[in-house]
Fold this sequence. Notes:
Order of helices and strands of chain A: HHHHEHEEHEEHHEEEHH
Largest interface: A-B, 58 and 45 residues
Structural class of chain B: mainly alpha
Strand order of the largest sheet of chain A: 2-4-5-7-6
CATH topology of the largest domain in chain A: Heat Shock Protein 90
CATH superfamily of the largest domain in chain A: Histidine kinase-like ATPase, C-terminal domain
Largest sheet of chain A: 5 strands, mixed
Oligomer: heterodimer
Shape of chain A: rod-shaped
Strand order of the largest sheet of chain B: 2-1-3
Order of helices and strands of chain B: HEHEHHEH
CATH architecture of chain B: Orthogonal Bundle
Amino acid sequence: xxxxxxxxxxGWPMTAVAIxxxxxxxxxxxxxxxxxxxxxxxxxxxxxxxAVSEQDARWRDFHVQRMEAVAAALxxxxxxxxxxxxxxxxxxxxTRDDLEPQLIERLDRVxxxxxxxxxxxxxxxxxxxxxxxxxxxxxxxxxxxxLRVQQEAAAMLQRHSAxxxxxxxxNRVDHxxxxxxxxxxxxxxxxxxxxxxxxxxLPLVEVVRAAQGRIVAFERVQxxxxxxxxxxxxxxxxxxxxxxxxLANATQSSTxxxxxxxxxxxxxxGAVIEIDDCGLGMDPQTLERQREIASxxxxxxxxxxGPTPQLGLAVVGEYARRYGFGVELRESMYRGIQAVVWVxxxxxxIVDPTAELDDLAPVRPAxxxxxxxxxxxxxxxxxxxxxxxxxxxxxxxxxxxxSPDELPQRRSRRNRAPSGPAFAADPAEGVSRETPDEAAAWxxxxxxxxxxxxxxxxxxxxxxxxxxxx
Amino acid sequence: xxxxxxxxxxxxxxxxxxxxxxxxYVITRGRSQxxxxxxxxxxxxxATDPDRRLPPAATVEQRRFLEICRGLLSLSEAAEALRLPxxxxxxxxxxLVDAGHLTxxxxxxxxxxxxxxxxxxxxxxxxx
Lengths: 470, 128
């Protein structure tokens, strides 16, 4: 319309040119204006981005700083402050001054809770220590009393040396005191203390006879074997006590008419004592549980004993762990259970079986020094720990060299596994299935093979619940 | 050990006695009487045959007993040497006699049982 109106005017071309020029100028200006506007927008955007990222960075820094401060406070909490709680010392205040009071207060509350728990634990621990101490002291009191009764009985026998009636009474008193002594000693040993009595190097046959004297049904025990094989002094009393507990088990689990056969045999790397009862044996699960305890693989402490304590096998296992004796239970060739005690070569000595009996006098009286207290053995050396050079004490003879013609043949453990088919034989023919020599060979193979590592790996078996003896 | 001073272990030091790991009742296998009643402290004993070996199951006491009885020895002397009460030694000896390893020699005429000497002693006392 505008163009049509201009067209009708005279001189319109001039006007049109001017308009066109103006329009062009306006377009150029407009474009420039737009560009500048865009640039300005970009600048603003960039500034905004810078501000945001700077703020982000500041936040990040702030957070890192906070985290470091909290981490440092936690380190302090877990370190020196918690240690003070553990040791029962006054807890030092936090040295951090860059934390909010609320946080500090919460950390302090954590420490207070820890202190409460630590106090409770300490009280419980003290109580257990006190109970253990009381058990040990009482046990040692009873052992001393039993020893005194035995000494009085022996003195009475000496004064009325030729009188059989005095011998009769003296024997009964002595025997009863020996039971008391053994039970008291079991408690002392399970509480982690030394058995107390000391003997010189003893023939293993005499060890068994000494053990025989400590059980009720001692008449049923029959011993046979190599009289020159002995145990070193330091392990004599532990071995007597260990064998006594196995004999007690063997006599209790068979009828009063049955003998309990004990044999002492040499091995290339030590000696074995085999104890056979003619009892009814036990079911595989019970046997397995008892084997774990007797071998020392499962530890049964005082606290695990329960209201009707069965100390026997727990004591056996305790000695096995401390002195490196190997103890295995398996089905006996006489139908009952056979206990095999392996005495490692380091604890074995050669003795003169007819040595002067004077030589059998104890090295030291049974009572440990009250000032130094009973020797506390390092806890639970693993079976086989006795192989260390330090075990053979001074005065103990070299490991027993065994006459070569008596060397039992080692056999594959696979073929002689205790639960193997050879032992699941018909009871009627069970007795004849295996000769004593074969049994010795089995023991040699078992402990020999076990010594190569198997027993070591078994030593860390987890504890189980309370166990009952058969 | 606390027991030394505690009520149970109280008392003076016990009489000095020989202590051995094997109890007397194990040595006698629970018996207090010898298998025969002929054993007195002065009973003389000697090994039947020094070359005769004891069975492998023989005890240390039996071996020692036979060893010291290679020569004639009274029961009380043997008991002293073995540091055993005579009553215990009598049980050990009776087993050895029963098994034929040990022989009882007739006790020499005891001066205490000689009537002539006793009468002389009595006369002497009366004259005091």
